[in-house]
Structures are given as C-alpha cells and as structure tokens.
Automatic annotation (TrEMBL):
It is found in: Periplasm. This is Probable sugar-binding periplasmic protein. The keyword Acyltransferase does not apply. The keyword Transport applies. It comes from Pseudomonas typographi. Residues 1-23 form the signal peptide. It comes from the Bacteria. SUPFAM superfamilies: Periplasmic binding protein-like II.
Length: 425
C-alpha cells in the first residue's frame, strides 16, 4: 500500500467509525425548538422526550424560554434564514400555513402515512385536524387542546377576603377584586408581558361582546367591530382590571404569577390551562386546593389553543424517521393521557377516557364539545390561533401600550386597534 492509499484508507476509516459507533445505538436525531420551560411545561415535555429516547432516537432540545413563544419564533426564523432549521418546531395555527406555503414544511415526509395508519382523520377533533394540514397533507403534529378563557382561584384567599363564591360576571369579578384588595391580597395575578396582557384582553372582549363579537374582531378583523363602542367598553374593563394587579408586574413570567396564587399572595389568575400544569407540579388538587371557572362572563364560550410541532423539510434519513416517531407517539392513547395530565390541556383525540382526568379537564372537555356545536368555540388570538403573527403583533402593541398608560382613553384605543390591524394586514 503506498503512502497515499494508506492515508486515504485511514481517513475513510476515521470518518466511518464515529458514524458506525452512533448508528449502533441511535436511529436518528431530532432537534426540537419549543418554549415549554416552566416546571409544569417541562414535566409534560419530559413525557415526550423520554418516549422518543426509548424508541432509540436522540432528542436535541432547543428550548427557548419565554411564555407564549414570541422569543422562540424569533430564534426559529433566524435559524431557518441561516439554513439551519431544526427537525421540528412548536408552530401553531395560521402560522403553520405560512411556513408550509413558503415551502419549509414537507407534505411528503411520511406524516400522511402515520396519520393514515393511526386513523387521525377519525380520531382528531376536526378543529385540530384542519389547523395541522396544508392542502390536505399533514405538516404538523397536534398534541392537545388548551382552553384560554379560564380564571384560576385560590379558595383560601377568597375565604380570607370574605368572597362567598367565584365570580360569574365582570361586575362580580370587580367586586371580588375589591374585597381581595381590602384583605391585603393582590387581587389579579398577571405578568406584564404583551402576550399575557392580550391573553386577558381576549377574554375581556369575549365577556363584553360574546363569541360573535369576538369572531368579528379577531377572525374577520371587521373594522366596524374593532373600532366600535363595545371594543371601547372592553378596553375600559381592561383598565379597571389592571387597577387590581401588582404594580410591579412588568416583565414577570406567567408561572411566577401562578406561584403567587398557589402560595396565597394573590387571589386569582386569568390564564389558559397551562397554568394548571404549575398547580399539578406543586402537587395541588383541582376543586380542593384551587378552583377553575370560565373567565367571568364567558361561560358557554371556549377560546381554544392547539399546540403542535411542525416538521421541517430535512434530508437526513434518521431525522425523517424521528419525525415520524414523534408523530406516532403524540397521538398514542397512553401518551395523550399522561402528557395532557401534566400539561393542563385536554387530549386532541376524541376517544380518550376523561375519567382519569381532574375536574377542570373534565369540565374543559365537556365545554369544548358543547361550544363546538353552536359557534361558542373560538380560536385564541393571543395564542396564534386566529390571525397571522403580524396582525397578532399589532393587537399586542395596542393592548400593552394601553394597559401601561394610566391616562389612555378606551375609545381612542379601539380606533388605534382598528388602524394597527389594518396596517398589519
Ligand atoms: C402557549 C402555549 C401553551 C403554553 C403557553 C405558555 O402559547 O400554547 O402550551 O405553554 O403558551 O408558555
């Protein structure tokens, strides 16, 4: 063997060895961009991570902290622009369509086959199935259904403040807040971040306008509704509620405000049911240690938020196999149960036995089924279900500027909302 051939053999063996070594115990790697970093969210994600690993794949975690996911979406965009997309990313709602339209998600990576083999068309709630398909092909994997219009209550705090029962209308909510304040308890726990401000705002709009007005505002983006008197009323209600929040809430994470309610520093939190994941992680029991009620004035309506992982267009065979594995795991009966018990959401499959879930999840499943029949189920604006991200960003800006400005005028804010949405469309 001459020197050149010897060198060539050595180089090719060296490059083969690492591959051979990892191929023996690793069927492929999937990197996943997501924002499930709170203790409760992490516990749910761990259920998925463990199963993927048990199936022989390597999970590379690209967790980007920041509830609601705005930071994660910024990171994702820059990775894709740099030509370095992850195997999967938490992308939701109409945004999935935009990524698919731009050619980044693959309709032919085998997701359709997994879906067919596992009966997704029959098992998935139609609302969810529609969201994760592009041109009749599955491009993302749905995990759950979160309800956004909830209010989480510490019953001990209510007792101390002499509040007899959970509020069922905005008037009763103001009343309860005033009593908590008198008792020296922060009435409403809400972190000061745009997505949190708008999470409350959309529930207030739902309470003031009902599901039709909500739909006209955030799905139809109807200018007359966006700038009308009822929208001004919603801003006025938001202002009133902001007066009952911790003045030092700026930038505070949602799970830290949940902790304030858990330990009785605050009385209630308007938040989607991922908040329940924190109560669960703290070993608290629904209906005993905490109460969940529809956001006051919105019983009968249901703002939904479906979490999903979109699968990116990659060439690596191992990653493609791992993508299909994630898809297979996600819709499994056992996984749907354990994951959603940890996450606070309800299964995205319509045939899961809900008797294994707590009273809040059981109420959520029942309310979702009922609200879906008569237009009461509406996509969450604050959680990327109703609009694309530029329109959502326009709403976030107007709402957060309004909530932080004590002198802001509700009627003017409604006009600004209409104008900002028009400009973003
Ligand atoms: C939502 C997401 C939920 C939850 C929440 C807070 O947008 O859908 O799963 O994690 O953000 O991070």
């Amino acid at each position: 063997m001459n020197a050149i051939t010897r060198l060539a053999t050595a180089v090719s063996l060296a490059s083969l060895f690492p591959l051979a070594a990892s191929a023996a115990d690793d069927k492929g790697t999937i990197e996943v961009t997501h924002w499930w970093t709170s203790p409760g969210e992490n516990a749910a994600m761990e259920v998925l991570r463990n199963q993927v690993k048990a199936d022989g794949y390597t999970w590379k975690d690209n967790a980007v902290a920041g509830g609601g996911g705005s930071t994660a979406m910024t990171v994702l965009k820059s990775r894709v622009v740099a030509g370095n997309p992850p195997g999967a990313a938490q992308i939701k709602g109409p945004d999935i369509q935009e990524w698919a339209k731009a050619g980044y998600l693959i309709p032919d990576n085998g997701l359709d086959d997994v879906a067919k083999e596992n009966n997704w068309d029959t098992l998935l709630y139609p609302t969810a199935a529609k969201i994760v398909q592009y041109g009749n092909h599955y491009v993302a994997v749905p995990f759950n259904i979160h309800r956004v219009n909830w209010l989480w209550i510490n019953p001990e705090a209510f007792k101390k403040a002499g509040i007899a029962k959970p509020p069922t209308s905005l008037e009763e909510l103001y009343d309860a807040a005033a009593k908590l304040q008198q008792a020296g308890i922060t009435p409403i726990a809400l972190g000061g971040q745009p997505w949190q401000d708008s999470t409350l705002f959309e529930s207030v709009v739902l309470a003031v306008m009902g599901p039709e007005g909500y739909h006209k505002s955030f799905v139809d983006l109807d200018q007359a509704t966006l700038t009308g008197q009822k929208m001004a009323d919603a801003f006025a209600a938001l202002k009133k509620l902001a007066g009952y929040m911790d003045p030092n809430r700026s930038g505070k994470d949602w799970n830290l405000t949940t902790a304030d309610v858990i330990n009785g520093k605050a009385g209630m939190q308007p938040m989607g049911d991922w908040a329940k994941s924190e109560w669960t992680a703290a070993k608290k029991v629904a209906g005993k240690d905490y109460l969940c009620v529809p956001f006051p004035g919105t019983a009968g309506s249901y703002t939904y938020n479906v979490d999903s992982l979109a699968m990116f267009n990659v060439k690596n065979k191992g990653t493609l196999a791992a993508q299909r594995d994630v898809a297979k795991i996600a819709l499994g009966t056992q996984f749907q149960t354990v994951f959603n018990q940890n996450k606070g959401s309800i299964p995205v499959r319509n045939d899961i036995d809900m008797s294994q879930f707590d009273s809040c999840a059981q109420a959520s499943a029942k309310d979702f089924a009922e609200a879906s029949k008569d237009g009461g189920a509406q996509p969450s604006m604050a959680h990327n279900m109703a609009t694309n991200l530029p329109v959502q960003g326009a709403v976030f800006d107007v709402v957060t500027n309004f909530i932080n400005d004590k002198n802001a005028d509700p009627a003017k804010a409604a006009q600004q909302l209409g104008a900002a949405i028009k400009a973003a469309q």
